[in-house]
Amino acid sequence: MPTPNTPLWEVFIRSRNGLSHRHAGSLHAADATLALQAARDLYTRRGEGLSLWVVPSSAIVASDPQDKGMMFEPTASKIYRHPTFYDIPDEVGHM
Amino acid sequence: MYTQALNQRGEGDERLLEDAAALERFQARIDAEERIEPNDWMPAQYRRTLTRQISQHAHSEIIGMQPEGNWITRAPSLRRKAALLAKIQDECGHGLYLYAAAETLGTSREELLDQLHSGRAKYSSIFNYPTLTWADMGTIGWLVDGAAIMNQIPLCRCSYGPYARAMIRVCKEESFHQRQGYEIMLALSRGNDEQKAMAQDALNRWWWPCLMMFGPPDTASQHSDASMRWKIKRFSNDELRQKFIDATVPQAHFLGLTIPDPELRCVDGHWQHGPLDWDEFARVIAGHGQCNRDRMAVRRRAHAEGEWVREAAAAFAAKHSAQLAAE
Amino acid sequence: MIVEAPASPLARYALRRADDALILGHRLSEWSAMAPTLEEEMALSNMALDLIGQSRALYTYAGEVEGKGQSEDDFAYMRREREYQNILLVERPNGDFAQTMLRQFFFAAFAYPYWLAMMRSTDATLAAIAAKSEKEIAYHLRHSSEWVLRLGDGTAESHRRLAEALEELWPYTGELFAVLPDETALIAAGVAVDPDTLRGEWEATVRAVLERATLAMPSGGWMQQGGREGRHSEHLGHLLAELQYVPRMIPGATW
Predict the structure, then answer these.
(1) Mean pLDDT, chain B, integer
(2) Best residue in B68, B85, B90, B307 to probe C by mutation, most C CBs within 10 Å?
(3) Interface predicted TM-score (ipTM) of this complex, two decimals
(4) Are strands A51-56 and A8-14 parallel, antiparallel or unpaired?
(5) Contacts of A33 in chain C (CB under 8 A)
(6) CB pairs under 8 A between B and C
(7) Domain C9-217+228-249, what fold?
(8) What is the pLDDT of residues B233-287, one digit of tens each?
(9) B262, B276, B127: which is closest to B212 by C-alpha?
(10) Of C36, A25, C34, whose CA–CA distance to B97 is shortest?
(11) Strand extents, DSSP E, chain B
(12) What is the pTM of this model?
């Protein structure tokens, strides 16, 4: 009987303190402990990281690209959220 | 890291079956140099072409560990041994990045490996040649990795996001591979007569197969139209081959080695080469290279012998999943 | 061309530890392309690279101490079976994955507290090598422990294979604690660590992991010795034949 598919994990690396964890890639491992070790052996061979997260890929909930319009486009018109929207005389100085 | 343009048969015109408007929007995104991401709509043939190309690329990395692996235990100094082992480990890592990229298109690692083990998937023909002397390690690093880099740099701008990102990581890590090989060749070419002869012999054997790594000549390759249109591929086989030759010939001269091509000559700054043996290429691709059977046998054996280990890990995970989750 | 055994006890001491690291690293490197998963391929190579790196630092130091211009490669490539002084455990053939992982676990369970203690060596170079090696071996211990657990407590087949590996390798664990006559003065001077002081920790680590792996800790029994004095198994000669083949075929060449 073939082995069932080994679970897929997403790997996130903090490259140095002060930065957030960033997605690096994925790998297969039977459990969380092996996944963390594999992440270390596969994704940090050149001093890429100080901290690792592994997350089961199945735990990630993603937005649908089809919903891009409704999800992300309405913000484009809310230009009053940006500082450049407001007119302040130069004499006031940096604000 | 190795990719090879293999002839891919066109698969009917199923574009007609897909929504013409969606196709148009897709092509517009490609033309605007936008990246396509896994959940985006894509034509079925784009998905299939990419799955095949990325997985072939991954298989090449994994099979490519073997010819060099043949010399890990016989590397002539500890420094060379460490560098070679690290390089081969990188190849495995690159195979893993690529399998992960291919999986985002919807085919599992297990399925991709099964395609390799059952002989349905191909890998680069270069790995079906034997590595006979230590000089082959130098030549492979210098020429095979050099050819691979020519192929791979444009792939960093491939339209499919996960493939492009994998290639960026790969190209960054591989920058030492070619230097590693060339340094071996330098040491041999500065060595005694036996070492020099070893270096020349290796170049003689690997030169032509390396040129064939770029795939059939443009005149014989009818399949890359779609790949070009979709910006999976950005240069033709012959363009890349020419770039490689122009870069490599002066490097060979620096080593004091002779390129085994009596017709080689420089015209307007470009090195023109003699005819390639495409019959040999076809034979090796078809499975009749000297090492095709050996390479596949080793890969199948590794997978079969690992079965009980993978089963043990799965069984342990099933038993302890509750505990691990609680920890 | 043949490199003689160093006269200095300190150089000999460093050489023995270098031999352990090189031979075990070489064995792990033999797994290339044969690992049970591609992810594990990466782990085995990483451990091999750590060990080869440790051996290079130790060989280089042995050459410096001896002061006759011997390089790391002179020691690695130009000594014969009888001059190699690694323990027998590390030259055991890889066998299956259970044997390789259990061998790694036995070695790391010793080497981890060993290098930790060696960080306090009165010899500054050995202390520096220890500081680097301790971190590497700590990971080897963790990685091999996790696999011993999974194989012991995995399937009936993996349990059987691990039990066979245990029976096969156990007699080679005694030599981890061997002390040669020329090492007692180094121990007294605080240059070297008395391995007997590490026995309790080694046994506790091994017992805990084996128990969780549902295997009983063997007790006592005959322990094989001889590697430290150059009396090896037949396996080492074949390993060295491969390792040394190229430089011996073209002697005096630079690679």
Answers:
(1) 92
(2) B85
(3) 0.97
(4) antiparallel
(5) 146
(6) 142
(7) Ferritin (1.20.1260)
(8) 899 999 999 999 999 999 999 999 999 999 999 999 999 999 999 999 999 999 9
(9) B276
(10) A25
(11) 265-267, 270-272
(12) 0.94
